[in-house]
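just leaving the lab so this will be short. below you get a single protein, a line of residues and a line of whole numbers that encode the local backbone shape. id like you to explain what the token line says about the fold, in plain words if possible. thanks a lot i owe you, the record is right below:

…
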Amino acid sequence: MVGMPGPVVETVNVIHVREVSGSPHAIAYLEVRTDTGLSGYGGPLYPEQEQEAERLVGRLRTTLAGCDLGDCSFGFSRLWNTLFPTHPLTSFAAGADPLTGDPIWDTRRNARHTATGNVVTALSAVDNALWDLRGKTTGQPVSQLLGGSRAILPAYLSIMPGNDIPTAIRKAEELFAHGNTAQKWFLEWGPPDGAGGLGKTRQLAEGLRSTLGPDATLMFDFAVKCRGRCDWDVDYATQVAAILEGVHPKWLEEPFSPEEIDCYRRLRDATDVPLATGEHTYSRWHIKPFLEEGLIRYVQCDPEWCGGVSELLAICDLARTYDGVQVVPHGHHVLAAAHVVASQPSSLCPMVEHGPGWLGERQRAQLHSFSVVGGRIDVPACSGLGPDIDWDRFERV
């Protein structure tokens, strides 16, 4: 299909669906429909992403009307450059917000996404919907459309421990016994928790390693919870890293707010624990300075947020130019990430993330969901990004 004429885009909508059974809870998706009546979907959308998509939908209809789906260059970057021609994404690498011009480095966010980030995530949904359509139009899974051949992927589980550490460790042991040898545990304690919080971190990390043994792949992530965007500082993160060094984790993930780049520099120099970040960065230009300075070993850009499938592919191309760097997309949703990972060599993209605590809801409206069995997950084999909306159970609001 690449380079060949195909169906063209007729319209773009933000749609809301809910269960026919009468549930008041509506789920938002970005829909791109072709002149043949076929629809592709991006989502589910989170509230701010939905709001930006609603705000942009009129311009998107104008920009995408008549777009040939066979032109795979028509995606996130081209959309951005069309909608914001005087605000290049390269500004991120130069240390400025592309839309506001405000300096970004060494600033701390007060929310999960920035205002500009919400725009990027809205366009990510458009890009993903276009890829969904390309797959449906050709009758291929997106991974195959991208030249991939991997049908099953290793997956790691992301798990919240809670305050009862012995119970968390028993849960880890049970998961491990069922083949889930790669586990990421969130560290829910920060400076306000004092020495007791560091003690919980030590109890969890050392308990996991001693119980699961050397064959377990352990990762650790900072958990935002209710304390604000991020309350770790370099001194605290260095203490945590010193605890983790003894259990040899694969990585410590996003210990600081996404733009606190100098904190990453100082922590990298203070520990041998590999660092990971990227789930809250937008486009290749936002993550590039971390790679140029050798601050991270694992890039976790999420196709739901970084610019869609198109931009994650560009990020993979960027990452492969740096020795020892791998791309493990954040698992806000599993569909788009799985297709990109399946299209790349395992040396670059070794696995995907699966969060049992949140992915059930993300997949609720699908014809069927995807879960991890024995530490592995199937790449969606149906055409497009994955199972369509189950129109027998759900209806448009």
In short: The two ends are 34 Å apart (CA to CA). Residues 9-139 form a domain with the Enolase-like; domain 1 fold (CATH 3.30.390.10). The chain has a mean pLDDT of 95. Residues 115-138 form the longest helix (24 residues).
